[in-house]
Amino acid sequence: MKAHVILVHGIRVTDKGQKSIGQLAEHFINAGHTVEMLDYGRFGIFAPRWQNNGVAQRLAEQVNSLADQDVPVIVVGHSNGCAITHMAGENHGAKIHKAVYIAPALNSGIKFPASFTSFLVFHNPKDWVVKLSALLFAHYWGDMGAVGFTRFDHRGRNRNVLTNFERSSGRSHSYFDSFFAPLIVREILNTRGPTCAN
User: Fold this and answer.
1) Domain definitions of the chain by residue range
2) pTM given for the model
3) The Cα angle at residue 62 between residues 67 and 181, in degrees rounded to 5
4) 158 has which bridge partners?
C-alpha cells in the first residue's frame, strides 16, 4: 500500500523547507507515494519552546485523519521538525506508521511515543550544532542528531550517515544533496522490521 508522506522542516527556513527536506519529495513521488510539506513558517531559536506544541497538534490532526482512513502515514522531520513530530505523538497521539528523524534536535535518551508503529533516526557524529542545542534550557533539544537514539526500543533503527551508506564514509554533506537524498528515501522505504542498530 502506498503511503502519504508529510515533510516537516526545521527552524530558520525562509523557503518553506524546499531547499532542505523538500529535496526528498521528488524521490517519494517517483516511488508512487503522495507528499505534502507541513509549513509552520520561520521560527527563531527560542520560538519552538512556545510554538512547537501548536504545530504538533495540527500535524497530529492531519495524521490521524489519514490513519482513520487506513492510509499509512510517514512523517519525515528535520531538526526541529523532529521535535514537532515527537510532540505530535507524545502530546496528541498521532498515529504515525513510520516516524523518520533526520538530524534530530532531540535528547538522545528520550522515549518514543507509543502511537508510533516504527521510527528511523539518521544521525551524523560530526553534527556539532545538535550537540550545542542540548545546552538550551527548557527544550526537548539534545544530541540525537549526532549520536542517534540511545534508549532501547524494538520499533526503531539508527542510521549513521557516515558509516551506514556505501561510499559515504567520512563524506562532508548535506542530508538533502543529490548524493544523500535518494539514499535516504530508499532507506526509509526499504526499512521493514524495526531493530535497534547503530
Assistant:
1) 4-190
2) 0.87
3) 90
4) 121
Contact by Cβ (8 Å): 159, 120: yes
Positions of E strands within 79-192:
98-102, 118-123, 156-160
Three-class secondary structure of residue 167 per DSSP = coil
4-190 domain in CATH 3.40.50.1820?
yes
Q: How far apart are CA 87 and CA 89, in angstroms?
A: 5
pLDDT in tens, the chain (198 residues): 799 999 999 877 778 878 889 999 999 999 999 999 998 866 655 555 666 788 899 999 999 999 999 999 999 999 888 989 999 999 999 999 999 999 998 888 899 999 999 999 999 888 777 666 666 555 566 789 889 999 999 999 999 988 876 554 444 457 888 888 898 999 999 876 443 333
Q: Which three cell numbers stand for residue 174?
A: 548535506
